[in-house]
Design brief:
mainly beta
């Protein structure tokens, strides 16, 4: 799945939906692990995205489609900066006030959030660790 990035993406593990390895490495049921080294628009593809930019990364998420229902994205702070993920009006976190827009990571390695797509056009927060949602 193509991504738009000012930095680069380095897939550590990559496989197709049948589980066949296409670029080496070890395949696990957890999906693709991708290192994100700069500002980027993440694809709505199940996987783990590790943010390693040497300053606060500006990450964008686009509205998921009906075909992406069941997708699970984990975004992990791999560098100690306050990374910001923007998903304009797309994040439902179980708190009053409607859908949220901004996910701001604590400036710590290990800050993380897992989002699921359970309906068209929205991400639900499955879990979070040191991430402020507004």
């Amino acid at each position: 799945m193509p991504v738009s990035t000012g930095g680069s993406f380095v897939p550590a593990y990559n496989y197709d939906r049948t589980g066949s390895v296409d670029t080496g490495g070890t395949v696990s049921a957890k999906g693709v692990v991708t290192t994100v080294t700069g500002d980027a628009t993440l694809p709505n593809v199940t996987g783990i995205y590790v943010l390693t930019k040497g300053s606060a990364a500006a990450i964008t998420l686009l509205a998921p489609t009906v075909a992406q229902i069941g997708t699970r994205l984990t975004i992990y702070g791999g560098s100690a900066f306050a990374h910001v993920v923007t998903a304009t009006g797309l994040v439902d976190d179980g708190v009053t006030g409607g859908s949220k827009t901004t996910l701001t990571f604590g400036a710590f390695v290990g800050a993380s959030i897992t989002l699921i797509v359970a309906q068209t056009g929205k991400f639900g927060v499955e879990s979070k660790n040191v991430v402020v949602i507004t």
